[in-house]
Amino acid sequence: MKTGLKITTFVVSLLFGINLQANAQTAEALAEDERIPNMIEELNPFDPNIEETLEYYDRIYEEETGKPAHLSDAFINDIIGLATCRRANCAVWAQVVKETQRMYLYVNGSLRGSWPVSTGISGYGTPNFDKHPDGRIYDRYTSSKYPGGDYNGLGNMPYAVFIRGGFALHGTPRSNWPKLGTRASHGCIRMHPDNAYTFNRLVRANGVSNVWITVQ
Known about the structure:
By secondary structure, the protein is an alpha/beta fold. It contains 5 helices and 11 strands.
């Protein structure tokens, strides 16, 4: 765990020092990689068969990018079925408060960021969660059903970190930025892509067992 904390400290110091230009350059570099598929699908997180759809896109993602669609410790965590940490006791804790439409990012127990988000509108309300992420994680992701534009070639759901099934925290394109801070999604949790990138990279650096997501 000590090694994980050292990694976290390094990643946070690096990520919070990255400016918008650097993030844009990273996105452009990823977009230019022709191996990254255009993940276009009809995502409905409330679909009872959503896992089958996601497994199909996992295979596409892995075949075309050569990169895993799941974090390496996700399978072990699923078998154990036990929380190795909880909330602020984890290296990384994302707390999403639906009442205020805001996410709070804690690293090693300290608040390191706070930003507006958009959870589900009426009829598509985002469920409450209090758990480790499920391990599915993409950089480039697109939904054609609720498109709303594209972000630097990374689709309209960049830097997605999945909580369970089709429910994920992810970035959203410029057309949706004015809506952040209000309920506007179809079940997922939208945020500015720069913030989604920060959280995505912290999850990648620390792994499922050291990250906790609360949606309340």
